[in-house]
Amino acid sequence: MYSILLVEDDKGIVSHLTEFLKNEGFAVDAAGGQAQALEKFGSGQYDLILLDVSLPDGSGFAVCSAVKSQRDIPVIFLTASGDEFSVVAGLELGADDYISKPFRPRELVSRIRTVLRRSGKSQSILKVGPLKVDTVKALVTKNGQEIFLSALEYRLLLVLINHRGAVMSRQQLLSEIWDIAGDFVNDNTLTVYIKRLRDKIEDNPQEPEIIKTVRGLGYKIDV
């Protein structure tokens, strides 16, 4: 489980984001200002920092500079919409990405996963029951035997694995696949690809043990 330090003084944003990120499988610790952020960073182990530019007792720039001088940890800035100066300043200090407020939580999660992959913190070998997924080689094996998946089947499997333990609604899956693939995928197409994927990875596709249907809600992987 990846651990995130969220540095933000807006309690509403902290509460909402913390709940959302925990549901996405992240551990979240929050700090309300510069001093608390640096104290927590010094005593904790985090994989990524979400950092607001404006803090009540300092600035996100100072936090980013201090953090980067000690450890090469990914930093994503949360900036006011259209604040080009903050974006440029943050990137010059070594920030890995930025996202403008207001933002969609799912877009933020996508940015987080991208930054973790780019920084080498994302696992390259994922294991799900009898399956092993090598994300560097885009290779899927089952009990040591390679399984040949289409590009969209592979993307669908990765989305479900990256949200392991969480129920993904059909709309969420469609949104994720659209974001990743850049192609139009409708509800009927999703049904077809879920079936095709199960046919290839399940021992008994009629009684799936890997991709489970949660009636009325969606699908999940929790093995």
Condensed summary:
This protein is α/β, with parallel strands linked by helices. It has helices at 11-23, 34-43, 60-70, 84-92, 105-118, 151-162, 170-181, 187-201; strands spanning 3-7, 27-31, 48-52, 54-55, 58-59, 75-80, 97-101, 125-128, 131-134, 139-142, 145-147, 212-214, 218-220. The protein folds into 2 domains: 3-118, Response regulator (Rossmann fold), CATH 3.40.50; 125-220, Orthogonal Bundle (Arc Repressor Mutant, subunit A), CATH 1.10.10.
How does this model look, in words?
- The protein is built from eight helices and 13 strands.
- It is of the alpha/beta class.
- It has two domains: 3-118, Rossmann fold, CATH 3.40.50; 125-220, Winged helix-like DNA-binding domain superfamily/Winged helix DNA-binding domain (Arc Repressor Mutant, subunit A, Orthogonal Bundle), CATH 1.10.10.
- The strands form four sheets. A five-stranded parallel β-sheet has the order 2-1-3-6-7, sandwiched between helices.
- A hairpin with a 2-residue loop joins β8 (125-128) and β9 (131-134).
- α6 crosses α7 (170-181).
- It starts with a strand and ends with a strand.
- 26% of the residues are buried.
- The model has no long low-confidence stretch (mean pLDDT 85).
